Amino acid sequence: MGEENDEKEEPKPIIIRNSTDLQRLKLEKLMKNPEKPVIIPERPKDKGVPNVPDFVRNVMGSSAGAGSGEFHVYRHLRRKEYARQKFMQEKAEKEQLDDEYHQKLEENKKQAEERTEKKRLKRLKKKKAKKRKPNKVQAKEVKESSSEDSEKSEEEDTSEAPPEMSV
């Protein structure tokens, strides 16, 4: 009997078939212990290039005549300068992509507004047309009923004068 209990206690292997299963499992694990603090990682910060002086005084060339110690200094300065240029290029590309993205968003927004305005005008036009049609139908009915009423009133009393309108 002890062996049967051991088999029941073993957890079944969990098979994750899609992203919703993964998300469900993570939520279940989180809800097992709600008091446990959740660690939310911060966004990675952009790497900045340390301030490279604009004017470097003792700039040495890569010639071998300067000595072996000077070559290491030159190589270090060259590496820093390349890093600075690369950073500036990446920053410019990122700004350009951001600008293009924002322009695209604005363009899409304008197009959506134009479409909604066009549809709104069409809707209002339809609404006005609907209002006019019943008015025409009602006007015909009113004319017919008024002509019938006038015929009846003439038959009943021909001596009555139409009421005067005050202006």
TrEMBL record:
One Gene Ontology term of the molecular function aspect: double-stranded RNA binding
Pfam families per UniProt: DUF1168
Comp. bias intervals (Basic and acidic residues): 89-117, 138-150
Region of interest (Disordered), residue spans: 1-20, 89-167
Basic residues: compositionally biased ranges: 118-135
GO cellular component: nucleolus
Listed name of the protein: PRKR-interacting protein 1 homolog
Organism listed in the record: Diabrotica virgifera virgifera
Originating gene: LOC114347053
